[in-house]
Each structure stands twice: as structure tokens, then as C-alpha cells.
Design goal:
Blueprint (H helix, E strand, L loop, with lengths): L10 E2 H9 L5 H9 L10 E2 L3 H13 L2 H14 L7 H7 L1
Antiparallel strand pairs: 1-2
Helix pairs in contact: 3-4
């Protein structure tokens, strides 16, 4: 988890970045690196609290499907604009 101070249900992307770092300029290198491997960050709408996400990934590891679940989490959060802090969203992914 990047920031344990993130609200339990996540935070709106830009509001979080402004509060924490004064803006989202720091993400430009991340976005550039991501684009090289197909992650375009098209709809990054929420800064997630990833506690529940980590719980799902632990369960997925025990089932041998962690890579697939992780890919689905990243796609939902960064490409589809979903909130992976939300248990309903994680339930759909699972």
C-alpha cells in the first residue's frame, strides 16, 4: 500500500494528488513507462486504498490465479475508471 492514510473507500484521483503532492505531475513518468507496455492510464479516476485489494490478491495466490486477478485489478482501476477500494468492484473482479 502506497499511502496508509488513504481513505478506506479511496479518494478522487486529482483531489488526492493535490492534497498529497500539490498535483499529479509526478505521474508523468509513470504514465510514460506504462504506455510502453500497454497501460495507458485512460481513466484513472480514483486513488485507491488497496487494503481490500491485497486481501483479494492473497486469496488469488492461494488459488494460483494471482497474476490474472492483478491484471484485472490494474485494468479496472487505471483503464476502466473503477474504484478497487470498493468491495463490490473487487467482488466482480474475483
Amino acid at each position: 500500500m502506497i499511502d496508509t492514510g488513504t481513505k478506506p473507500n479511496g479518494e478522487e484521483y486529482m483531489a488526492y494528488n493535490v492534497r498529497r503532492w500539490g498535483g499529479d505531475g509526478w505521474t508523468s513518468s509513470l504514465r510514460s513507462s506504462g504506455a510502453k507496455v500497454g497501460c495507458m492510464f485512460k481513466k484513472w479516476a480514483t486513488w485507491p486504498n488497496t487494503f481490500k485489494t491485497h486481501c483479494l490478491l492473497t486469496a488469488a495466490l492461494n488459488k494460483g490465479v494471482q497474476k490474472n486477478v492483478l491484471d484485472d485489478i490494474f485494468t479496472e482501476c487505471y483503464e476502466n475508471g473503477g474504484n478497487v477500494s470498493d468491495i463490490g468492484t473487487l467482488d466482480k473482479i474475483a
